[in-house]
Design goal:
Strand order of the largest sheet: 2-3-1-4-8
CATH superfamily: P-loop containing nucleotide triphosphate hydrolases
CATH topology: Rossmann fold
Bound molecules: adenosine monophosphate
Distance between the termini: 4 Å
Shape: globular
Oligomer: single chain
Number of strands: 8
Helix content: 40-55%
CATH class: Alpha Beta
Strand content: 5-15%
Number of helices: 9
Length: 223
């Protein structure tokens, strides 16, 4: 199974990609994780990427092509993969198509995790961690009792640096202008499948599995 998960930041791609990886035994390839590891290692790539990532912008297509072709050459990707966070521009989608064509391993499907922008903004801006228990909460969606339990235990609701409204707004704007064209790219090739990403983690996993099991216009999805 060779698939791409598409969706805005906060749509749940990472969570669902991990679940698919465990179930199907194929790697989740998250370009965000690869870049964060490069930043942590202090490599030249990491130094270049850090400023761009902190600003909520995209790392160049050229750098991303190098990263993804190296990663897809590793043996664990030979039997399939789940791409999470790549491609993020139309150019990256074209580069990926050419790369996979050369390998004789075309993509089976691109699944769009569709979610309302208002829900998305609330998911991201409302996210807090309880300073006392470490529990992940959301000021808009968590049950009142869970939020009160944290406060009564003497905890504070702490917001992550990159969940601030300004950075989120920038990332969503970049998604709209640069990544949304990728949806049309896969639709034109008959590879796009869309699922409703608003729901519990289990509900969304079920929808995702159903979308992958459904017969497509291209080749089958047998891994
Ligand atoms: P993510 O964890 O997927 O949200 O990625 C975090 C950040 O890494 C993004 O905001 C971008 O700055 C950068 N990044 C990840 N994947 C890509 C990509 N395919 N193309 C360009 N930049 C990327």
């Amino acid at each position: 199974m060779r698939i791409v998960l598409l969706g805005a930041p906060g749509s749940g791609k990472g969570t669902q990609a991990k679940r698919l990886m465990e179930k199907h035994g194929i790697p989740q390839i998250s370009t965000g994780d690869i870049l964060r590891a490069a930043v942590a290692s202090g490599s030249e790539l990491g130094r270049k990427a850090k400023a761009v990532m902190d600003a909520g912008q995209l790392v160049s297509d050229e750098i991303m092509l190098g990263i993804i072709s190296e990663r897809l050459d590793q043996p664990d990707a030979a039997n399939g993969f789940i791409l999470d966070g790549f491609p993020r521009t139309e150019q990256q989608a074209q580069d990926l198509e050419a790369l996979l064509e050369r390998k004789g391993q075309p993509l089976d499907a691109a699944v769009l995790m569709d979610i309302d922008f208002d829900v998305l903004t609330k998911r991201l801006t409302g996210r807090r961690t309880c300073s006392k228990t470490g529990k992940l909460l959301n000021i808009y969606f968590s049950p009142k009792e869970e939020i009160e339990a944290c406060l009564q235990a003497g905890g504070e609701l702490v917001q992550r640096e990159d969940d601030r409204e300004e950075t989120i707004a920038k990332r969503l704007e970049v998604y709209r202008s640069q990544t949304e064209p990728v949806i049309a790219f896969y639709r034109a090739r008959g590879k796009l499948r869309t699922i409703d990403a608003d729901g519990s983690m289990d509900e969304v996993t079920e929808r995702l599995e159903a979308a992958l099991a459904a017969p497509g216009r291209g080749s089958g999805l047998g891994s």
